Predict the 3D structure of the following.
Amino acid sequence: MTQVATQFIQNRVFDEIQVGDRAELVRTLRPDDIHLFAIMSGDVNPTHVDTEYARSSQFREVVGHSMWGSTLISTILGTEFPGPGTVYVSQGLNFWRPITIGDTLTITVTCREKFEHNHHIVFDCLALNQDGLKVIDGVAEVQAPTEKVKRPRIMLPEVTISDRELRYGHLLSITAGRAPIPIAVAHPCDAESLRGPLQAAAAGLVVPVLVGPEAKIRAVAEQEGLDLKGFRIVNVPHSHAAAEAAVALARDGVVEALMKGSLHTDELMSAVLSKVGGLRTARRVSHVFMADVPTYPRPLLITDAAINIEPTLEDKADIIQNAIDLAQVLGLVEPKVAILSAVETVTSKLRSTIDAAALCKMADRGQIRGGLLDGPLAFDNAISLIAAKTKGINSLVAGSADILVVPDLESGNMVAKQLEYLADALMAGVVLGARVPIVLTSRADTAKTRTASCAIVQLMAHKKREARLV
């Protein structure tokens, strides 16, 4: 049986400490330290948390809170020297230079003077950075403990900082330097479906053509304080007509992408898939969610969770190929594709396992190209290397999947929504396989979700342009 060593925290009592005794603590400032300190203290001085502002400040970069360094002095006094039972009396500090991200501070406290009558000790405090330069100095006075204390060290929970704004900005940055593309927005007749394309336009991603009842669109804009100046509006009487008109704009080459507004998905997709005047290609149309999950080290594509209810084997081959093509547009040369089921072994009792095995063989024979496929894989071992190793799965895909292929729409939709609402995933959704990419979001999605999706279709449109020139 393996024995786990217990860590203890213990003090040094007043009588054990001599003048000249000292203790050290070494700590490096990370971005999460700055964010966590700001959250705990409420100190959101832009010098610490606003990258753009910080560039124009005297330090030219984000700097840590000066008091973060002072808390390290408190840490060493309270946990080690003297340790548990110590009571702060006073603290005086001087701050000599900023603490920047990546700086490593060495905190030293040295006993300067002792007072027998009240068990007070005065400590000299010093913080030097990795270059040996003085960052903080000062004097602390404490009442030292007189009774020995030894306690098991309490293991604190891990803290994850989920910075949605930072992740949102990173997603938009994939299109940096590219010109906006024309996009038809079908029936943007509520606040979020109108705000989304306008935000995307402000971000330089798209040039929206608003297709729907003009009076209703303008009424929403007025109510929400949105400026429609400079945006083209195609006036049609209702949502069905908006879907047909938006598709016609794409078919005629006026726009390079479509965006769903406040109409039902089947209204828009019926027009897209119409055999007369639609946007069909030889490829099966499918939907891909891109999820930026704080607890997963890379973007995760989930397909199909919105279009194909119970896809056949042939449908799944197209669904996978669509997702691989998107992953490559996003910069993944050979994306890892995990074909999901409830189990990792092939069994006739679960059709999804048989489909997974067949799809892997299709990839071996070149019927699916550009990705590395494995399946069936359960969700846990598709995204967790530890889970895969525990179950004895030897795979280049398990534990590091880029694409999750779900068995059907129901399971895929549940996975995507759970990641969004329980794991704080930043989501973007796009339909592939038609003549133009389509931003397809839920009517409950925010404007930022719609804008993030526009970043993907803008990148796809530019890659399509580049392919024509080759």
The radius of gyration is 29 Å.
